[in-house]
Prior knowledge:
This protein is mainly β.
Amino acid sequence: xxxxxxxxxxxxxxxxxxxxxxxxxxxxxxxxxxxxxxxxxxxxxxxxxxxxxxxxxxxxxxxxxxxxxxxxxxxxxxxxxxxxxxxxxx
Length: 90
């Protein structure tokens, strides 16, 4: 007799291990090894933000959010990966 089990598959939202900025590009290393780069202009990050301010990105909420304290800006990591940007490209 054989038994076939159909275990449910659970989708796991992507989470960040680390984030950093190089020039005007923000990079996020995900828990699955992917590295995603994005321009800050696709979000509400002020276009006048300096490279030094962009470099102050922190990973928070167990890897599910990026935070810039000085700029008072938060971005969700699942939103980045899904391409849910806040603003149209400039």
